[in-house]
């Protein structure tokens, strides 16, 4: 597949056409003066291992992995950073030598860095996370270690339950259930679903929200996401999409590969435009 491979870094996913990672990493390379050619690769759903093995055999040095392969990437790596072990999910791979591929997860540090930049997070904050997929697995440990309480609300209850039992040894984490509708108010609400379906206007009851509540959508697109539209509709002024998280998680992948943490402020501005 990668005969005469002309790139040594890449992002692998399916679908992948929408990915902004090549743009971000090529900007990082230019900025830091590090030689690093980065492309995106669409992987057939049943061929993740074959494609990744070929890439590393043909000169690949580092990879990002996006949906739906983060779990497979975790199993593919034969060395893991502590945070990847805890998340059981990998979004960054680095070739150490012919024997070892190191797996890391930079989604958590990416989200936390952006929440700090936006001034959306403080110790002891109460956070509602909507969703319980691979991305949430990556962000729970950093948020719990920061000292926040977390409640998980998910379409499939059993997936939320599984996450809570996996992470309750690291901090204060609970399933959000309807008995809390009228007695809880959150400092921060994060949308981590791949589809935010606004069934009715009170999808998130306003009793859970104050005028200071911040809203963060891990998703990003040029126009407002449905979640951001909903934030505007309820009159919130503290909201953001996930473009900053994307830039910061990429910066931390770059750090793992090249020992340099690139600045992200100007990249976030470029991506917003
Ligand atoms: N900004 C960034 O850097 C960044 C990084 C990582 C991910 N993301 C984004 O975050 C989102 C989640 O990623 P992921 O890797 O966690 O995906 P995932 O593993 O596929 O999980 C998807 C989540 O969305 C829920 N969901 C899917 N369709 C739904 C629907 N119709 N109604 C309600 N809930 C629904 C799923 O619930 P069930 O458990 O019920 O299936 C699950 O909790 C993606 O859109 C991804 O692009 C952004």
UniProtKB/TrEMBL annotation:
Oligomeric form and interacting partners: Homodimer.
Organism of this sequence: Buchnera aphidicola
Source species taxonomy: Bacteria, Pseudomonadati, Pseudomonadota, Gammaproteobacteria, Enterobacterales
Full protein name: Shikimate dehydrogenase (NADP(+))
Keyword Oxidoreductase: yes
SUPFAM superfamilies, sorted: Aminoacid dehydrogenase-like, N-terminal domain (SSF53223), NAD(P)-binding Rossmann-fold domains (SSF51735)
EC number: 1.1.1.25
Taxonomic superkingdom: Bacteria
Similarity comment: Belongs to the shikimate dehydrogenase family.
Membrane-spanning residues: 127-153
Catalytic activity, as annotated: shikimate + NADP(+) = 3-dehydroshikimate + NADPH + H(+)
Chain positions recorded as NADP(+) binding sites: 82, 131-135, 218, 242
Family annotation (NCBIfam families): aroE, PRK00258.1-2
InterPro entries for this protein: Aminoacid_DH-like_N_sf, NAD(P)-bd_dom_sf, Shikimate_DH, Shikimate_DH-bd_N, Shikimate_DH_fam, Shikm_DH/Glu-tRNA_Rdtase
Recorded GO CC terms: cytosol
Domain Quinate/shikimate 5-dehydrogenase/glutamyl-tRNA reductase, residue spans: 123-194
Name of encoding gene: aroE
Binding site for shikimate: 19-21, 66, 91, 107, 220, 249
